[in-house]
Amino acid sequence: LEPGSYVYLSIRDTGAGIAPHAVERIFDPFFTTKDVGEGTGMGLAIVHGIVTGYGGTITVESTPGEGSCFTIYLPRMVTAAQEGTLGHASANIPRGHGHILFVDDEAVLVRLGHAMLEHLGYDVTGYTSSLEALRAFRDCPQQFDVVITDQTMPILTGATLVEELRQVRPDIPIILCTGFSHTMNAEKARALGVDAFVMKPGVTEELAVTIQQVLQKRAQQDLW
Questions:
Q1: In this structure, is the dihedral angle defined by the CA atoms of residues 184, 214, 117 and 5, taken in order, positive or negative?
Q2: CA quadruple 201, 202, 204, 205: dihedral, nearest 10
Q3: CA–CA distance from 178 to each of 45, 84, 104, 117, 211 (Å)?
């Protein structure tokens, strides 16, 4: 961390704890202690990416059989209310407006995405079910300006969701996110008609810039 003033948030549980060898890798992408099919191993990696993107850090202390404590440190925003700034760590992150449909089967990532995007100025509707997200889009397709969806989801994958969304509204800007998938890469995403492809864990600035790029690209296409 750079010298300065910080605020911190500690989250402690009294669960099973984490084995020492696992603590060393807990923030690594794709690392998980869950059984196959029960988790992607991306949750904490994405949290780490978001926190470091704001100039902060996250630590963990854990004792097997007693529980764990995660502590997040973020730069303190001095006079943010008066100056309308996010602080030097995020001053250059582009903000925007519009309604974003955010889809990910992991509830924690939906909550994080919702908070992050609202902080950037967007209205957000989040779903952990791609089927429910599709139903909501079909009910009122014109209320959304951008769709951000995960790729690896049960029942309806991100790729299939993209195809269904395009049938309803061909011009909707779509950003496809994935951490690990044998069936999807940037080239396949482009062939699918996705406007942008983002690898997890992404940071706030990367996603903020990508949203602005797809919105501007779509606006230019509408002029022709």
A1: positive
A2: 160
A3: 13, 33, 10, 18, 16
Return the ∠ at Cα 215 (arms to 103 and 120), rounded to 5°: 65
Q: What is the pTM of this model?
A: 0.64
Helix (H, G, I), strand (E, B) or coil at 179: coil
CA distance 127 to 181: 21
Domains delineated in the chain: 6-75 (3.30.565.10), 93-223 (3.40.50.2300)
Give the tens place of pLDDT for each residue, 36-87: 444 445 678 888 888 888 888 888 888 888 888 888 988 887 654 545 544 5
Comparing CA positions, the residue from 82, 89, 104 lying closest to residue 56 is 89
Structure tokens at 6: 């910080």
AA letter at 110: V
Q: Which of 67, 72, 74, 73 is nearest to 23 (CA)?
A: 67
Residue type, 103: V
